[in-house]
Amino acid sequence: MTGHTAVMLPEVVRLLAPRDGGIYLDGTFGGGGYTEALLDAAACTVCAIDRDPEAILRGATLAARFRGRLHLIEGQFGDMLSLLAHAGVHALDGVVLDLGVSSFQLDDPARGFSFRTDGPLDMRMAKHGTTAAELVNTLPERELADILYQFGEERASRRIARAIATARSEAPITTTSGLAGIIRSVLPPDRSGIDPATRSFQALRIRINDELGEIERALTAAAGLLLPGGRLVVVAFHSLEDRIVKRFMTDAAGRAAAPSRHDPRGLVQRTAPRFRLLTPRALRPTNRETAANPRARSARLRAIECLSPPQAVIERPAP
Asked: What is the pLDDT of residue 313?
């Protein structure tokens, strides 16, 4: 499949270590890169979730090639428990999550994710719900500033929100280039070469798609689905995502800092962790990969392995 390059693909496949007869989940199907590599690596079954209906349609060719072994599911990966249960899957040998927006979405002006080409100010991954234009034109200035700061770590959030409020009072902001122009008018060019609109566009996209909430729900669900020996591999692309993943995996592996001796929780005996860290430190893409695919440069890969089943014993379903 073309149009999207799966980031850190060899590392993902190596850590998931797919085996014949295993059942795996690609929670962010996108261009199908991870799914295809897993299906090529072993005679396994892959369930692939994507909230974007266009991604599911693109996967039809791959599903035909691996007939009976690839099951495409439209939905949000945070809902994987119910989506997989509906498909008759209740336990997994591995899960991969590639967080953030896909290249297909970024490169399509009609989806409104990027300021590099003009398009409608949309940013919805699932093509339903509130658009970026609706948020930008209706939210109170202070709430808009909070979103830019919280989800984009934009230090000039109040200045940008004020400029947006002034502009929309004259005419609605409906295009990506229109919003980007407003942001650039109040922010000087960044010395790093990063476009001044980058953080604000990221913030709006995360807010519209509830991306951080989805990540937290997906990590918890994945941990409950993994069989002993099963692995969870996550590729994140910015600090907000990676922070959530790092904290979750550290806690799951029993690596969280012990409570203070003055904290009553320190008296409670800690149970043996169900997971072990496979990546004590996040893995980074190689120089060769970032040279070939600049979008990979900010990637961080983390992984854990399940050591014991959850309290409720799960019987393995038939593939």
From this structure: 41
Instruction: Report the C-alpha gap between 26 and 31 in whole angstroms.
Output: 11
Question: What single DSSP character describes residue 180?
Answer: H
Specify whether domain 109-209 bears CATH 1.10.150.170. Answer: yes
Query: Does this model's pTM top 0.70?
Result: yes
**What are the structural domain ranges in the chain?**
9-104+211-306, 109-209
> What is the predicted pLDDT for the residue at 295?
86
Q: Residue 267 gets which letter from DSSP?
A: G
Phi, psi torsion values for 81, nearest 5 degrees = -60, -50
Which residues, 6 or more positions from 261, have their beta carbon under 8 angstroms from its beta carbon? none
| 9-104+211-306 placed in CATH 3.90.1150.200 | no
Q: Quickly state the pLDDT bin for 113 (edges 50, 70, 90).
A: confident
Q: The tokens of 119 are what?
A: 């398009």
| Residue 100 · residue 132 · CB < 8 Å | no
